[in-house]
Amino acid sequence: MGRRHHTNQDALCLAVRSTPPQAAVLAISDGVTTAEGSEVASLLAAETVVASLTGQSDADAPIKERMVDAFKAAHEAVMADRD
Predict the structure, then answer these.
(1) For a FRET experiment, which of 10, 38, 52, 62 has its CA 20 to 30 Å from that of 44?
(2) What whole-number distance in Å separates Cα of residue 62 and Cα of residue 69?
(3) pLDDT tens-digit series, residues 39-54
């Protein structure tokens, strides 16, 4: 097995969108065990992806495009939180 730590740097977030188009979104983020604050970054990334995908009003956009936008938003949120 890999390294063991006293804390878990991984995170997950689940949300259900009840308005059309209905959807369930689950994001799992693997924290980087060797990076300081990775438990915060992984949670922020998971929450941002879920919020982005459940909050999008443009349901006609291709899912790949919406996923890319959600991951970009998560990256930007994590990078902004580092400052």
Answers:
(1) 62
(2) 11
(3) 899 999 999 999 999 8
